[in-house]
Amino acid sequence: MTHTYSVNGMTCNGCATKVQKLLLSVAGVENVNINLDKNVAAVSMHHHIQTNALKNALKDYPKYQLTEQSNHNHTATITDEETRTWFQIYKPLLTVFAYILLITFLIELTSGFNIMHWMSNFMSAFFLTFSFFKMLDLKGFAESYSSYDIIAKRWIDYGYVYAFIELALGIAFIIQFNPIITNAVTLVIMIISIIGVLQSVLNKRKIKCACLGAVFNLPMSTVTIIEDLLMIIMSGSMLIFYLNK
Length: 245
What we know:
This protein is of the alpha+beta class. It has 2 domains: 2-80, Alpha-Beta Plaits; 84-243, no CATH class. The chain is built from 9 helices and 6 strands. It has helices at residues 13-24, 51-57, 80-83, 86-109, 115-136, 138-145, 158-174, 179-202, 222-243, and strands at 2-8, 29-35, 40-45, 65-68, 208-209, 218-219. The strands form 2 sheets. Strands 2-3-1-4 form a 4-stranded antiparallel sheet, covered by helices on one side. A two-stranded antiparallel sheet has the order 5-6. Helix 1 (13-24) packs parallel to helix 6 and helix 5 (115-136) crosses helix 9.
């Protein structure tokens, strides 16, 4: 069953992620979908949960006030995500990837295509672009990231650190700093990252993906797995190449 509630006090994607994480901690809650524009939380639950139990989950954050909606019922609530097509949902991510692919391929065409050189440029553009979006709302990203990353769950400040790790890796790839160290670090970071993504997707948790920071409302899905897996394959391939060079 899914119940809908009004939640006042949410002003940004970081707030929405915080409320979502707190409500998910309540025993019996399966999923929480937040509509920030309407200040609404759709809470899916195994059994009926008293409103006071949900309010109690937010008690440490008094600015978030949860109340029952007047049309409260046990029917499923249709969210914005459910009314959008797959392309509409992932358009921001697909557009970013398309730009990175286009620019890096054009760079290679001017000097003769080299797969290793292209992958290095691709990863540089990837990390620089994705870190940029995270920097636009660093706090919002850190809070979103802490909802699924295995390290950020235990240490929320890792979200802040991770944005700068991506920036550093982007710079390292573009200046070709010690390819073995750069690719080894990338491989480890991306393997750690994909663990939390896999856990969320396999458990069918409806949470936001923080890959483009808190700027876009992207749901966690197999698209996120493919994104991380691509970076693992690239960094692993380059690491093997440079180790055998």
